[in-house]
Amino acid sequence: MSREGKRRMRKIIDPSTDIIVANNTYGTFAYESKNGDLSIVLEKNGDEENITYAEARRLKKFFNNMSLLIVAVNSENNDVSIMDVVRGLRVTKAYEAYLDFVEELDEDEFDGVDMLDTDALAEFVIESDLEDFKEALNTPLKQALVMTTVEMYKQRRLTDRDKQDLVNNRGEDFWSDVEASSRAVEGH
Questions:
Q1: Is 90 exceeded by the pLDDT of residue 98?
Q2: Given its phi and psi angles, is residue 60 left (phi above 0), alpha (psi -120 to 50 degrees) or beta?
Q3: Is it the case that residue 174 has pLDDT exceeding 90?
């Protein structure tokens, strides 16, 4: 099938459509628009906020780098999916990689996804095999994977040295620096 036949049309989405987004970082996510009409503060990983599609359009870069995750869509007739919003925002590559690697879905299943879980990325980091993890690092998920890998290491939930080595891009002192910062936060 040609690329033209396979490509889906973007759905026209009402700007007031309710979108639930979650903090996909391991710190506070804070955003305030220049004119102050949109302000979001999410204290910890998994914290959620309801925003409109119009507001989501202004946060595109955070969906692209996976700092924010679209976890659900509440449309009037339940006729707008997460993938409809993703296509409308033009952040398809990041979400296709997420659904493929993290949620382990085939492309033909993407449109049926009606909810995403922020714990899934951490589970992928911990449970995936090394080849899938390595392949995922070559996608738009890289930044989110590195951040999550570091956090799982700090929480002592990741013991796979091979995965740790894959995200180490600074040399031998990378993990010792992470360890030192963890001890400093813990007060040791």
A1: yes
A2: alpha
A3: no
Q: What is the pTM of this model?
A: 0.84
- Calculate mean pLDDT across residues 84-94: 95
Closest CA to 53 of 8, 77, 19, 30: 19
- 184 versus 135: the higher-pLDDT residue is 135
φ, ψ at 27 (rounded to 5°): -150, -165
Retrieve residue 62's tokens: 């955070």
What amino acid is encoded at 122 in this protein? A
Nearest to 33 by CA among 7, 68, 59, 66: 59
Q: What percent of the chain has pLDDT above 70? A: 85
User: Could you tell me which residue, 58 or 165, shows the higher pLDDT?
Assistant: 58
Amino acid, res. 127: E
H/E run at residue 182: helix 173-186
First to last CA, the chain: 60
Beta bridge partners, 51, equal 19
Beta bridge mates, 29: 42
- Report the C-alpha gap between 76 and 141 in whole angstroms: 31
CA dist., res. 96 & res. 118, Å (int): 16
Amino acid at 22: A
